[in-house]
Amino acid sequence: MFKRKHKKHKKKVAQVVEQEAKDFEEALELLVPSTLIETLPRDQIDTLDQSKATFNNYYVEVGTQSRHRRYFTSQYIQKFGKYSNATMLDPFLIGEFGKGDTDICIHLKKLDDRATLDKLNRKIRGQESDLMMNDADSGRTMDVTEALRDTMSKRERIRQKIESNIEVSIQVLTSSNDIDDLNRYTNTMNRNVLNNDMMMGTPDGRQLKALKNMLPFTANPFIKEHCMALETTNVADLFLFGNGTLSHNGGIVLGDDHLGRPLYFDNFHKDMENYNMIIFGRSGAGKTFTTEVLTHRSAHIGLKTGIVDPKGDYRRFIKAMGCPYFDLSSPTGHRINIFDVDIEEHTDPEREGQLYVNIDEGVQGAKALIFRMIRVNEPENSSILTATARAMIDQTIRQLYTDRGITRDPNSIYDYDAAKANSEGALENGQDMNLTTPYKKMPQLSDFYEALRAKTSNKEAQTIAEVIFIYTRNGGSEVSSIFDTQSSTFNLSRAPIFGFGLSGLDEQMKKIGMFIATKWLSAKFARKNRHIPKRLIFDEAQEAMEDPETASWLENQYRTMRFFNTSMCAITQGFEVFTRVDQGLGILKNSSTKIFLKQEAIDIDSVKNSFDLSEGEAQFLLYTAEKGLGIIRIDNESSIVKVRATPKEFQLFQTDPPRKRKPNPSAS
Length: 668
Ligand SMILES: Nc1ncnc2c1ncn2[C@@H]1O[C@H](COP(=O)(O)OP(=O)(O)OP(=O)(O)O)[C@@H](O)[C@H]1O
Ligand SMILES: [Mg+2]
What we know:
The chain is an alpha/beta fold. It is 40% helix and 17% strand. Strand 19 (629-634) and strand 20 form a beta hairpin. The radius of gyration is 34 Å and the shape is elongated. Mean pLDDT is 84; it is low at 1-6 and 44-55. The chain binds adenosine-5'-triphosphate and magnesium ion (MG). The site of adenosine-5'-triphosphate (ATP) has 18 residues, from helix 8.
């Protein structure tokens, strides 16, 4: 057995060696081709009508043994409109001109500032004398006056070292396997760039030198008459080999931009106003897929992610990653308690480093949940939640913590008696002592219910008790009472990704459960370990906008999470729902990163107005954007993004039912 394996291995090595040798041979052949001919129009005098000859008839033919012959022609950009801009070379890169390829090669040489200033001074003197010779109000005078002003302001910029002058050669090489295709391709390209205010020049008679200039062997790759002197700022615009149209150059590659360049997304970039994000898109637009790409690649750079998964969309992915997925809807599964509170650090700079139990936050969340339970079940047209009822609920919840001695003091949360009993028990039994002190038992929903019941003379308290009774352990079904419990023990510290699933719950319970899970993860994960970057993702975020209290609670999370180094990431189908309430607008304002995937017609106007999208961008999101294609916006920057998974990732992320499954276009 071992021998066979060994043999197989040897065979593989032999294959690799063979392939490498072949690659090397091919590379060598390109460098030292078997034919390398520069063709000029006069060489073709017999076969070509000279009067029809265009610059394209100057070309280099490269022949190799193992590949097709290929034809190359070089041109240089000689001039462009008055201002450069970051996308001016894009048409070349997109290269949709026919059967051929475009390569761009930029050579730069910093010019001596002193020499540049001398040159500019000479130019200014020339322009001044030109002015003196001309009639004051002739058109020519106006042109020269303007040119003089330009030259003088350029001299000023160089003098003050705001700019430097740089010699630039921008060479555009077109190539094809067929000479006619090459001519057509190059002509189409030239027509296209003429529309863009650019002028091209050809190194006629020196095509071979130009082609060789593209290789890194030439000592002086500049052809003098094909160079421009540009200022630093203009040169910066030429750099298309960077990081897409977002300025990030770290983090993860989320996909490609509109030119197929890798698009980096650094969720914790220091310039970002906050780390939160929202992903919008209609059903099937690729929200879950995008989120999985984000989560998977982030895990590889050490970012931890917790996911609240109402529909069970992430289960397969999380499990395939070998990470824990806690199904809260399973009858025997893990449980969380809506009254859990925890210790966290003060966000107030004056109390930096001080710890406290954030009871207020816990009460706000629990109250919002109880309001939601009441709204879901209150008889139609009744208004149980009067101002006094709300105040009474608030006071009753606070009392539950007070009764257990749990206050803002971090010491108050620990159960020292239990710790002592545990260690004594361990000593007696000769076991190892557990040195961690457990937390006290937290209040539970049935404690809240009992507390209301105890207010026998308060009619409102009795009504509310009746409504929430079904959520208590004695109140009815096992399913609706799953949150009346002490929390299970979760070990979240080791897993890079973990999920809380709710897909088994009915619609009403799911709406409540999603919020319970988000609240719990906020206290136990997002607001802990504040120096470690992490992400909390929750899908179906539009649900939280249904109640003002839930929406407010969530908005508060979005406002405070930067301090805890946490990125809150909301995924939602319904954009319009967010813009309808103030809290939704607050959440949008506190999300530096927004990803828009394909939109529903009903949402497009609010998306367009809220984010000042152009008509073109709106049309793109409504019609053009296919799955995984959208716009990413980070504070003031934005780019088109095509979220692209590797074939292996695609296998992990696939959520479409298998029968409908389409092959991954990027897998080929
Ligand atoms: N970037 C992508 N590349 C390839 N396929 C994709 C991409 N994005 C989405 N898909 C395909 O579309 C399917 C549906 O996408 P996804 O489940 O992410 O949509 P969704 O927006 O989350 O929908 P819903 O709102 O219904 O949850 C995926 O299973 C996958 O097959
Ligand atoms: Mg989804």
